[in-house]
Amino acid sequence: MIGARGPEPARDSGRGWLVVAAAFTSMFTVFGIAYSFGAFFRPMAREFGAGSGATSLVFGITAFLYFGLGALTGAVADRIGPRRVLMVGAAVLGGGLLLTSVVPALWVGYLTYGVGVGIGTACGYVPMVAAVGGWFDRRRSLAIGVAVTGIGFGTLSVAPLAAALIARYGWRHTYVILGVAGFAVLAACAAAAERPPVPPGAPRPPGRALRTREFGLLYCCGLLTSLALFVAFVHLVPYAAGRGVAPVPAAALIGVIGAGSIVGRLGLGAVADRLGAVRTFQLALGVLGSSYALWLLAPGYAGLVAFAAVLGAGYGGWVALSPSVMAELYGPEGLGGSVGALYTSAALGSLLGPPAAGLLVDATGDYRPAIVAAVVLSVLSLLVVAPLPARRVHSRSESMSVEQEVIDGGS
């Protein structure tokens, strides 16, 4: 097929799997760094004399930016390709971490860490997910599932590594190490981040899909899920440390979430190619919601390990399948912009959830109210998407036909 830029590479090709490898490594890096914040929580709070709510806001701002800006970085990557977007992310991530290593006050870290890691992750996440989705037709859910396992492996590896580095060098020098390494790895990923083949015809703007009832359900689900989810990512490590767990084993709980998410991403991604993305997505949310009961009922370290593993499996499926659900409902064209728009729901949840939980902890002196709130929110998120219909879109013409059906049904 001949497009505006010459012969188009075949989809599902070896070049597509090279992009999967670049996406895996990119997400390993940005999320490994972002989700290691739990290891920095207590050292930073102690140095700056800050409470749980104020310290949690560092991560809240970060996650708000990387989910919220996904709509922008995804749309830009749809137009110019992921390579230049990822290079910008490498520079901003590295610079932000280096600046964070010298901040004189916590509020300055809101800017340096929040903006640096937030923008860096936004550039290394949605554009790469969309690139992988554009390279595959038949095995899209599996390919995206493999790519986003980078998030799980990064979470598994970087959080305990950061805790060990902090114990030896301190949190400031650890940010220098992560900043230099993050820049180098993302720059290498950018070299392999080839733009996917262009489908025939003009790209379909995401706006029509965003006005449908189905998108509204997914958006509400994303908000409720992320309000609950990031309570664990930020507060699980200090919760464990407050119960006498040593710093490295406490930080390793984030790694367990990462390990569980690898199983969820790969296992549920493969299931989705048979069962359909929508139904498997609902299954992942059920697993995610049930995990919080373990945190509530089994607060010992073994129980926390079980909670982290089950939470990770559900979380991994939720993240891996969100782009596949959008592609199943509306087709792959313009996937970067539409997935980015969906992730603004997670931006709001991640900004509000951890600080609100921190304020509850500060006010009550107990984590139980925050955990109960997470249970309620996760159950509501599953109920919201229970009526979501399953549709599979294979071609552009079928995509447009189904999209019109969805619009007509939701109007």
Question: Low-confidence parts, pLDDT < 50 over ≥5 residues?
Answer: 1-10, 392-411
Query: Could you give the distance between the termini?
Result: 37 Å
Instruction: Give me the secondary-structure category.
Output: mainly alpha
The total beta strand count reads 2
* Rg from alpha-carbon coordinates: 20 Å
User: What percentage of amino acids are in beta strands?
Assistant: under 5%
Arithmetic mean pLDDT:
81
Q: Report the biggest beta sheet as strand number plus sense, adding barrel if it closes.
A: 2 strands, antiparallel
- Fraction of residues in H or I helices: over 70%
Give the ordered list of helices and strands.
EEHHHHHHHHHHHHHHHHH
Task: Write down the overall geometry.
Answer: globular
Tell me the number of helical segments per DSSP (H or I, 4 or more residues long). 17
Kindly report the spatial arrangement of strands forming the biggest sheet. Answer: 1-2
List the helices and strands and how they pair.
Blueprint: E1 2-3, E2 6-7, H1 14-34, H2 37-48, H3 52-68, H4 70-80, H5 82-100, H6 106-124, H7 126-135, H8 140-169, H9 171-192, H10 207-210, H11 213-242, H12 247-275, H13 277-297, H14 301-330, H15 335-364, H16 368-385, H17 396-410
3D architecture notes:
The two termini are 37 Å apart. The longest helix is centred in the middle third of the chain and has 30 residues, at 140-169. The chain has a two-stranded antiparallel ribbon. A hairpin with a 2-residue loop joins strand 1 and strand 2 (6-7). The model is unreliable at 1-10 and 392-411 (pLDDT under 50). The protein is mostly helical. It has helices at residues 14-34, 37-48, 52-68, 70-80, 82-100, 106-124, 126-135, 140-169, 171-192, 207-210, 213-242, 247-275, 277-297, 301-330, 335-364, 368-385, 396-410, and strands at residues 2-3, 6-7. The chain is 82% helix and 1% strand.
